[in-house]
TrEMBL record:
Lineage, top ranks: Bacteria, Pseudomonadati, Bacteroidota, Bacteroidia, Bacteroidales
Residue ranges of domain N-acetyltransferase in the record: 22-187
UniProt name for this protein: N-acetyltransferase domain-containing protein
Highest taxon of the lineage: Bacteria
SUPFAM superfamilies: Acyl-CoA N-acyltransferases (Nat) (SSF55729)
GO molecular-function terms, A-Z: acyltransferase activity, transferring groups other than amino-acyl groups
CDD domains registered for this protein in UniProt: NAT_SF
Gene3D superfamilies hit by this protein: 3.40.630.30
Length: 376
């Protein structure tokens, strides 16, 4: 029977769109489900500030009256203008192992993009760089994280069969928290502090708003991430949204700031306990008991693994070893809190500056993900 593609046009269909991923990966030991309410907010033009500069439609694939795939078609006008491109993004793509299904979904994105003057298709990408991005191509037997995509191995086979080519790769590392920081690492960190007249600051909850540190952090991220693949500068609306939504959940012990002599922020590192196992137990729902698993992981019985969410350094300090100061501060805290491992989360494979910061730790590259591209 032919594949039927239907545009999501109401909340019931959006609910089906979100839940298809839960059903496809039900009981998969490596997939980490998103929270349903978070996804509703992400896909809502009224709640997601990225719609200030993005447009999107969502599509479901049906076969024999059964949902067999989904995809989001997105145009990020801000990114296209920044990088001088005319690209439509495909994101939140999932499908059963049927070549007709994946072809129908991506043909729909291509047609949607062409109607809007686009010349190429790229993905998986979200609305912005802070959404999950990149199709998993290595590490299928590794537990995913709350900020990354998990997919079956057959996905990439479908992409290549359909003529898509590699556009960019991200790599991920599993890091062992050392029992003690190497003396050389400590010595170099202390030299950097003195040489550049820097200081490490621990953030207080009241300072996020009163001293505008929330704004300072995201301004720094905008500056540090500007040269990275596909990045579009966060708008003030997005920054306000992230400050309100995410910073209250962060244990400030796991945040490190580096300031210069004048008190200007030059580096930031934000980490948190891994929520992967808690999200698996929650199964995408806060109720009736999903909230309990998440709060337990965040504040009570912390897991052995932590997620490194954001690491940003001002461009003029990126070759001066300043990122080492973040871990000079954070590693002893990780030790005190009982963490054994860290997940780096995705880093562009060409970003050697970032990967160099793991040289002081025992680490293994255990995942790789890919953005694919097809020119029309």
């Amino acid at each position: 029977m032919a594949i039927i593609i239907k545009k999501v046009s109401n909340k019931k269909e959006l609910k089906t769109f979100i839940r298809f991923n839960y059903e496809l990966y039900k009981n998969n030991p490596y997939s980490v489900p998103d929270l349903y309410d978070d996804m509703l907010g992400t896909f809502s033009p009224q709640k997601n500030a990225a719609f200030e500069f993005c447009e999107a439609d969502y599509f479901l694939a049906y076969k024999d009256d059964k949902v067999v795939g989904r995809v989001a078609a997105i145009i990020n006008r801000r990114a296209n203008e920044t990088w001088n491109k005319k690209e439509v993004r495909f994101g939140w793509i999932d499908f059963v192992d049927d070549p007709e299904v994946s072809k129908a979904l991506l043909d729909q994105v291509e047609a949607w993009g062409k109607e809007r003057g686009m010349e190429a298709m790229v993905g998986p990408l979200g609305f912005t760089d802070l959404d999950a991005e990149g199709m998993l191509v290595e590490g299928f037997d590794q537990l995913s994280t709350m900020s990354t995509i998990y997919n079956y191995p057959y996905y990439s086979q479908h992409m290549e069969r359909l003529g898509f080519e590699k556009e960019a790769d991200w790599v991920e590392f599993k890091l062992t928290v050392p029992d003690k920081l190497p003396e050389k690492f400590v010595r170099i960190s202390e030299i950097i502090l003195q040489k550049y007249k820097l200081k490490i600051k621990k953030l207080k909850r009241s300072e996020i708003k009163e001293k505008n540190y929330g704004q300072k952090i995201f301004d720094l991220i905008n500056e540090a991430y500007a040269p990275l693949y596909g990045y579009s500068k966060m708008t003030q609306g997005q920054i306000n949204q992230y400050i309100k939504t995410y910073l209250p959940l962060i244990d400030l012990r796991m945040v490190s700031l580096v300031e210069d002599e004048a008190g200007e922020l030059v580096a930031v590192g934000i980490s948190m306990p891994s929520l992967s196992e808690a999200l698996q137990k929650a199964k995408g729902k806060m109720l009736p008991f999903g909230w309990y698993h998440l709060l337990k992981a965040l504040f009570f019985k912390k897991p052995k693994v932590l997620d490194l969410l954001l690491v940003g350094v001002k461009p003029e300090y990126q070759s001066k070893g300043v990122n080492a100061l973040l871990f000079y501060d954070l590693v002893p805290i990780y030790q005190q809190m009982g963490f054994q491992y860290g997940e780096s989360n995705p880093e562009l494979e060409v970003n050697k500056k970032v990967q160099a910061q793991w040289s002081a730790f025992e680490s293994v590259q255990h995942k790789r993900r890919r953005a694919y591209k097809k020119v029309f």
